[in-house]
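name: query_chain
kind: protein
chains: 1
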Amino acid sequence: MIVSQTVSELGASATLQMSKKAKALEAQGHKIFDFSVGEPDLSPPQVLFDGVMEAIKEKQHLYTPVSGTLAIKKSILHYTQHHQNLSGWDVPQVCVSTGAKQVIYNALMASLEPGDEVIIPSPYWVSYPAIVKLSGARWVPVSCNEHNGFKLTPEALQAAITPNTKWLVLNSPNNPTGTVYDTDTLYRLAEVLKKFPKIFILSDDIYEALCYTHRPCPHILHVCPELQSRVLVVNGISKSLAATGWRLGWGIAPQSLLEGIEKIQSHSTSGPCCLVQHAVAQTLNTPQLEAYILENHGIFTSRRHCLVKALQRLPGMDTLVTPMGAFYVFASCRGILHHPTIRALGWRTDRELADGLLTHAHVCSVPGSEFGQEGYLRFSYAVPPKLIEEGVERLIHFLTTPSKISE
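structure:
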């Protein structure tokens, strides 16, 4: 077998698998209500397109430095200070990559060895454990209770730490739950981390522009700046600027870690697309872009309310808590699993439920077990309000008249 055992044991991304099945059903002529993929249906801001066209006219077509151009690094540092209220780094501490995922991959590959451990609060984004496995290290899931807002507690963090712990992953706002860590919780987590100076913190901030409760989004470096020498800040344009296919993200970190990240990148993808770098460098801190972010913030706030209100009509979801960030609702599906219609169909798990609802009701979600938490479904509201309302109405209709939907 040509494929390694490590890769053979990896599961494909559940999000993309559900989306792939939804597209196949759509190709057969079915109308699909797809709540699976975290990809905004909005267009990126016009200034980004203008920036790319400018780079094309100037015939910018050559390789850039592996870690990005000087112009985009300066622009990123300015954005980080202005939008996240984080500062204190210099240009050499920034690496620009082909998406935020590559930053995370590069950082973990550059720093982990067999025997090392990475603490990952659960529910978690599906790629964190996969990347750790590929590195040969061990990932340590720590379950976070819904009654605590799916937040990692200091006590749980302390209990998970061993002499082999090298990283803690913090994702706020969180995918899949929409959880935003408050400053008090971050402070208490920082107090634990201060006792273990060898542990680094991977702060995945890709949804920071979509925080609905605070501005800027609370950050561990706001409450404990002295951790800066141990923090990797990850961000990018895919979510906040609806530019998923543009593939541009960045990491800001201590110089020693950045050198490792750059080495990995130099032997894999090299620098990201020169055209996109130029566009982002020119526009990231413009009034047009700031206005765009504010407008999208309002759009997603409205959609969040629309989806939560709609889902509260489903069995067991009447007390559904409104998420504080990102564009996901992580909803318990235990009430639906106990509904007579679902019990009669023999669906007992969130995986069976998600697959069945897609196949028969043509509503696509992602089972919570794929994110490390059984008994939930993740719904993305990066979709139009009409689709939200019609999709949930389809679920309600299926529960009351399943035979008509499944024919």
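note: The mean pLDDT is 95.
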